[in-house]
Amino acid sequence: MTRIGFIGLGSMGLPMAANLVAAGFDVRGFDMRPAAMDALGAAGGEGAGSAADAAADADALMLMVVNAAQARAALIQGGSLAALPKAAVVVLMATCPPAAAAALGAEVTASGRRFVDAPVSGGVVGARSASLTIMAAAPKADYDAVAPALAAMGSKVFHVGETPGQGATVKALNQLLCGVHLAAAAEALSLAKAMGVAPAVALEILGGSAAASWMLRDRGPRMLEDAPEVTSAVDIFVKDLGIVLEAGRDARAALPLAALAHQMFLSASGRGAGDRDDSQVIQSYDLLNRRN
Amino acid sequence: MTRIGFIGLGSMGLPMAANLVAAGFDVRGFDMRPAAMDALGAAGGEGAGSAADAAADADALMLMVVNAAQARAALIQGGSLAALPKAAVVVLMATCPPAAAAALGAEVTASGRRFVDAPVSGGVVGARSASLTIMAAAPKADYDAVAPALAAMGSKVFHVGETPGQGATVKALNQLLCGVHLAAAAEALSLAKAMGVAPAVALEILGGSAAASWMLRDRGPRMLEDAPEVTSAVDIFVKDLGIVLEAGRDARAALPLAALAHQMFLSASGRGAGDRDDSQVIQSYDLLNRRN
Q1: Around Cβ B129, how many Cβ atoms within 10 Å?
Q2: Most buried in the list A167, A191, A230, A239, measured by CB within 10 Å?
Q3: Which residues of B touch A253 (CB under 8 A)?
Q4: pTM for this one?
Q5: Helix or strand or coil: residue A141?
Q6: Which residues contact A135 (CB under 8 A, 6 or more apart)?
Q7: Cβ contact (<8 Å) for A209 and B133?
Q8: Residue A34 has what DSSP assignment?
Q9: Please, are residues B78 and B51 in contact by the beta-carbon 8 Å criterion?
Q10: CA pair distance B268, B265, nearest whole angstrom
Q11: What domains sit in chain A, N to C, each tagged with a CATH number?
């Protein structure tokens, strides 16, 4: 497996495709923005004229688009599934609701191609440094076929199950915890400010105690800045916690903490902060308690 | 400062007092249970006949009782404040609402003694290994006076502010995050079970990703057991999240995630699981979604 088609060369997809090139794969990528394909070319890959063109002759087709609708559009309307050789594997890496990933998998396998549901965690930093966590679900043989390519993009690659949709489920669990931890850090640090405790002191203590979370340590310092660098936007969590709640709805499972955290991100997005760093969800608390 | 009175020799207080003895302090302790004083004696300390007896001639009086009401009872009704030398320092180490810690501090300083608000985090494990996190608030000179004794009980000792109540505030922030993280881990792992993903696999992935929290790694494995060892009980979080919400109420600050997490622990306690390991809050989710 050496020739890879790659659809979706955004802030995540471009460095992931470049890491495949660096690992020796022959990568032909497509994106709606010509500049993204130029950047792939500069990294040693090749730009494609269309989604179908990226898929022609590929052994595997990676999809790193924004959502399940875009993935389906690239496969069906964009013609990449029809253009893909019958022996090839479609690898869905975008964050999608589990039911949508499973449905897309059914369409792909009905066409005779194989399908791996393999969403990622780790953000732009992980994409650039090839240290993504990848949660792949597929029959073992299909997973094995693409495992070397996955290993070129991530340092923690897991085969989480045999059934497409299970990768998306683990990704949803991941986003549930990330989103709740982020909102909880904001709730605590906003309270620290309200009660007259220096939030930087609180952050140092909490980050080294049983109260610690990855999100608290990573986003906490940026919560104390007025206009921090955007490493991941508020609207990403509006989307991803929405997927979590959709997964819960489909499974008929109440997820009260995730639902509440979603409201705090929606509040931030609703006042126009959707493109700000997700640490700024703290302002939802500052405003809730009128201390902004 | 060499002579220390210690009131409250429970699962936390006894090993803390023993660590003071091990560090060379002369410790006289009091507890309602004679067996606890025998254990202190075996560790090289001395049992007192009453709270007042523990305070007489002491340079510092540590209070590691269950709550603010017990601390006040030991100081006032128990006569230990009146028995304490005027130059001594009262150190409140129990988890109390910030306003209650501040009020107790005002009573102590009105009597002419000094007061340090110094709650701890780290549980029985931290108490035994002298690795507690201690969050002390007091005028700097008073903090400095007891710092060597605090260092005998904790490995991370912080002077968080000059005003009694600020230590209790940081402890409340700590418990807010611990309680929410614990409930969030339960929400995620219960969903994993509901959606057919092996929770042990999910736990391995989530514990090494941006979804990680100290609580997920520590309590997650016990959430997958039916009757795990009790390291900290459900009712401790019923109490501590109650203190968090009382702090929020006094500060007129809405704390929606903490309030919701509290409900999940109350649900567990209400069905008779209050003395079970706090990881069993997962059953509140299993039952909420009828999968128990």
Answers
A1: 12
A2: A167
A3: 190-191, 194-195, 289
A4: 0.93
A5: helix
A6: A118, A119, A120, A121, A158, A160, A167, A170, A171, A174, B205
A7: yes
A8: H
A9: yes
A10: 5
A11: 3-162 (3.40.50.720), 169-288 (1.10.1040.10)
